[in-house]
Write a sequence for this structure.
């Protein structure tokens, strides 16, 4: 039987609120956030008591065009320091490394960087490269996490083998990533138990990164937390790719730890998110719901949304045929 960890009336000191607004939100506008927006977001996270802020990706400019993408897709040291300075706060700074797009040769040592954590995003078939990057980042002094993407498409024995391999690495946190927003709480409960058994045996922690295709990102985050996940990914107002993510304001409104403050988040929403909603489109929609229900990559929903296609019955028929 899977045991609950704590209760809704207790404070769990192992919980880390991890804000991904700039990184996941950057997938909506190709990382063209202004310095003013990113600075205000950084100050909001500090004031709200957020534990980690993911300021973007460290994609190599030799692989993706700097003309097409904004600075937060590349996260050069000088760009990050322009926002956070020396980051003389309790909050840690993270960047995400995509396997196949981030080069370990371009990762400078931690002693020369204001970044604290490297987050590795990998598909199962890329695990050898992910392990290599984990080991390199640790050798350079960083904390690390690994997000195993698209696990809803993997077989149990395949995932078990991957977790066993990752358990032998120095990675600090292994993430349950609901890439397609297709999991239900009962499935998240079972995955949390699976990941925790591996993590506990090797002194690691687990995290949850949920997408909102089925309007379950918040519920799934709480479910994973209740059964032992420690690192909880959120974005302000759910800003993120497609259907978006678990909203920060919902989570810290639930957590009983007095270190987390809601008022700074509400201020940022008023001043920055409300205007942004007039420019960018994200969050739950029927097309994203349908890809989530069918456990399909949301690329078709992205295209339909970009084209403002609301012929949902035809969209559904096409998904069933494909």
């Amino acid at each position: 039987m899977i045991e609950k960890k704590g209760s809704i009336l207790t404070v769990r000191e192992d919980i880390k609120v991890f804000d991904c607004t700039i990184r996941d939100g950057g997938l909506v506008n190709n990382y063209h956030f202004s310095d003013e927006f990113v600075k205000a977001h950084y100050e909001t996270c500090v004031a709200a008591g957020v534990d980690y802020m993911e300021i973007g990706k460290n994609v190599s400019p030799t692989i993706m065009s700097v003309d097409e993408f904004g600075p937060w897709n590349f996260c050069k040291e000088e760009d990050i320091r322009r926002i956070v300075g020396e980051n003389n706060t309790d909050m840690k700074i993270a960047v995400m490394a995509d396997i196949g797009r981030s080069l370990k040769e371009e990762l400078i040592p931690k002693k020369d960087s204001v970044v604290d954590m490297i987050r590795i995003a990998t598909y199962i078939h890329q695990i050898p490269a992910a392990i290599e990057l984990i080991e390199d980042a640790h050798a350079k002094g960083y904390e690390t996490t690994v997000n195993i993407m698209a696990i809803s498409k993997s077989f149990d024995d395949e995932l078990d083998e991957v977790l066993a391999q990752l358990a032998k690495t120095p990675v600090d946190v292994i993430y349950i990533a609901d890439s397609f927003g297709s999991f239900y709480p009962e499935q998240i409960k079972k995955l949390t138990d699976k990941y925790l058994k591996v993590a506990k045996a090797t002194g690691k922690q687990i995290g949850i990164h949920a997408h909102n295709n089925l309007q379950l990102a918040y519920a799934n985050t709480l479910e994973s937390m209740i059964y032992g996940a420690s690192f909880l990914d959120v974005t302000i107002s759910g800003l993120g790719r497609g259907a978006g993510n678990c909203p920060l304001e919902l989570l810290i409104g639930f957590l009983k730890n007095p270190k987390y403050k809601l008022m700074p988040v509400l201020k940022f929403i008023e001043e920055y998110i409300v205007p942004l909603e007039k420019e960018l489109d994200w969050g739950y929609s029927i097309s994203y719901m349908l890809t989530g229900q069918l456990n399909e990559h949301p690329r078709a929903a992205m295209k339909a949304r970009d084209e403002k296609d609301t012929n949902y019955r035809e969209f559904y028929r096409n998904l069933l045929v494909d």
The first strand starts at residue 16 and ends at 19. The two ends are 39 Å apart (CA to CA). Strands lie at 16-19, 52-57, 92-98, 117-122, 143-148, 173-178, 205-210, 231-234.
